[in-house]
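Below is how a single chain appears once it has passed through the pipeline. First comes the sequence as given, then the structure the pipeline wrote out for it. We keep one example in the README because the format questions we get most often are answered faster by looking than by reading.
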Amino acid sequence: QVQLVESGGGLVQAGGSLRLSCAASGRSTFSGFGMGWFRQAPGKAREFVAAIRWNTGTTFYADSVKGRFTISRDNAKSTVYLQMNSLKPEDTAVYYCAADRMGNYGSLTSPGAYDYWGQGTQVTVSS
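Resulting structure:
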């Protein structure tokens, strides 16, 4: 069973930076997986933030974070990162890591594509 554990959330002022980590376990390799970050603010639907194909390193971003956020993965540590710069109050949300077993192809922007989810980590950006 794949397990995902997020960390790195917290409180930061607008314009600041945070790096989220998602440690994946339960498999010897995540080759073929797609890994994504989603977020959910109070009263709003869960929305796509960024994703990466494990094999190729191909990345995808929501327009709202393009140029400010960077997703990456560390094969040796089976960990996915989300570097968040120039944070805005509207980035405030619970951030979730997700894994898609068939992530070599297809869309990685829909929550329905993912098989496993982490518990989430709170990010709060003050103005």
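The chain has a mean pLDDT of 96.

See the next section for the split statistics.
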